[in-house]
Amino acid sequence: MYSYGHYKLKVIILVVVAAAEAAALVLEVIVKVEVVVVVVVVVVVVVVVVVVVVVVVVAAMLIVVYTSIHPLTIPFHQRTNFTRT
């Protein structure tokens, strides 16, 4: 009789082999597709990544600017909207 670990190893090997076959099939399909389509897809992915990075950077800058001018961060003697009692 085989142990649980043996069956677990067999399952892992089968999953790895199946993943490799699936990757080979995908690569085969990509090779059959025209190169132009692949280039267009790569360009679209790169543009989307750049746009996301720019949006994140701008959002981070806006957050920094907003928190730096927040009234609580302004020294008390520079605040104009306070009343003395």
UniProtKB/TrEMBL annotation:
Highest taxon of the lineage: Eukaryota
The identity of this protein, by name, is ABC transmembrane type-1 domain-containing protein
Listed A to Z, the keywords are: Membrane, Transmembrane, Transmembrane helix
| Keyword set includes Membrane | yes
Q: Which residues span the membrane?
A: 12-30, 36-69
